Amino acid sequence: MDFFAQQARVRGSSRRLVVLFALAVIAIVAAIDAVVWISLGHHAADGEPAGSNLSLLVISSVVVLGGIGLSSLFRIMSLAGGGKTVAESVGAVPVPPDTREPQLRQLRNVIEEVAIAAGVPVPDIYLMAGEPGINAFAAGYSASDAAVCVTQGCLDNLSRDELQGVIAHEFSHVLNGDMRLNIRLMGLLFGILVLAIVGRKVIVFGGGRRSGRDGGGGQVWMIGLALIVVGYIGYFFARLIQAAVARSRESLADASAVQFTRQTDGISGALKKIAILSEGSQLQVANKQEVAHMLFGEAGKFSALFATHPPLLQRIHALEPGFREEDLVRLAASLQRAAQSPPAFATAGQPGKPQGAPGMVQPPVLPVLAGAIAAAPRFQRAAAVHQAMPATLTAAVQQPESALAVVLALATSMEAELQPGQRRIVADAFGDDVLRAVQTMAGEVTTLPPIARLPLAALAFPALKQLPEGRQQTLLAALDALVRADGKVDLNEYCLVRLLRMQLQEARQPRRTPVDGSKKLPGCRDSVSLVCAIVAAGGCSDEASARRAWLLAMQHAFPGEAIEWSPPPAAWQGPLERALDDLDGLLPVAKELVIQSLLSAIRADGQVSVEEAELLRVICASLHCPVPV
């Protein structure tokens, strides 16, 4: 997934968006000022020349700008809760974590597997139960407060692979920073539309005054009419901007989904079904235009000017260059025959999980002519890790209090001499009931392979962020104390605590999640050197090997430069925290160089250990980047 190139494009889209909306607002202010001047400003005041009323234009400009700005800010602040607020605004309902309904269970499984593979916490999951069209969106300020919402049509009509393709498409928006831009678009559109709403109120007021004796009602009525006309014209052009920005990102998200899952059948199959089925991707919810730019497919039948996505056939052809429109006719006939057949459930390795809608079998796979696509071992490993987790643990992480016990158990040592002290830490922080739950979970946690530890924490995250803030802080303090019980902190312990602390903090204050930085790599040379040294030392058994791995990384980041090797300090955790915060301020292209340099260090010995993989996952999360494919 070319995350960094996409993120750079999103930055460019953001700049263009600011410029275009600024021009639109300037045009709106100028138009309103012209109407105010015609209605009021050209009249002489108390025998003075008409120019003495120029102050009206200043007042008018300030009022209009203030109205648009405050309305936009109000709308953005109303979405401060992040992704779940956006999902609930369109009538979506959360999918229970312990659901046993086959379609919803499959949805949760797919989203959890994609989250594990991407190295991000599991998002909140929502369903638009009354929507028969095939559509979905991701919303939020960051991965830690993201929500993924799908329509009932996705569950009724898509196979597991197709659903996976749609979810991977939405995760690409999560990973490349589209979601924050989408929320800003919602606020700006609302701010401009408010002018028309205010205009209607002014007309009502002006109409009342027209029947009075002051004779000024006609002028007020004219201003109200102007607000309505200019407000809707401004909204028209704002919708054009919204559509243009959205179209530029959707094709990239399709390509990213293919790179992520390593197969085109899923997402192209979903697009074909949108083209075939009568409901398509349309939404019935009243405020669908507000979220149109963040959806998987078009929210309604808009003209090409207002289309927020490229044409369906164009999207399919980009994925499958050999695709022909007549293939849709054959696929439609196949689906019609399948609808008359008995239900076909289950996929390989997923007994009892619905492959598509009841009464529908997997559609025939059309030839993939986009070229050979290499297998994606990381994605397959994520699915295997998820499916192999003990049922007791996956059930426990679905509820806040039991998820808390699981995470504490992950930080508990199996060394007998450390356990009495660690038990006191848990009992002092949470009481004897939680201690007993932790001891029960500890036995299950010991059966986990090391590679499943951070994925289990990712599954626990949605439940953990439901805990009260004070309890979250107590949890983080207890985790710190548990991992320091033996006087040192190893890489596994550091990764667990760092990841949970960062993600819980971002989930509590989503709007404060760091945005893309502006630093260049040379200005962060010391931080790059330290992080590469810690990664190299963590993956090598001796200093000479660590030094060689570090040199490979530094030559990748700073080719041709002579930089002196410095082993990581004994107390490396604090310096690493500061270095990661420093690197998070880099430009996307500089972050790409850092990640690729770290990969050079990790692969120096020809193998990737669990500790190295976990540390890379935490570094990527700290830099707000996906784990590289």
UniProtKB/TrEMBL annotation:
Keyword entries, A-Z: Cell membrane, Hydrolase, Membrane, Metal-binding, Metalloprotease, Protease, Transmembrane, Transmembrane helix, Zinc
Highest taxon of the lineage: Bacteria
Domain Peptidase M48: 105-320
Pfam families: Peptidase_M48
InterPro entries for this protein: HtpX_protease, Peptidase_M48
CDD domains attached to this UniProt entry: M48B_Htpx_like
Annotated PANTHER family: PROTEASE HTPX, PROTEASE HTPX HOMOLOG
Protein name per UniProt: M48 family metallopeptidase
Protein species of origin: Rhodanobacter umsongensis
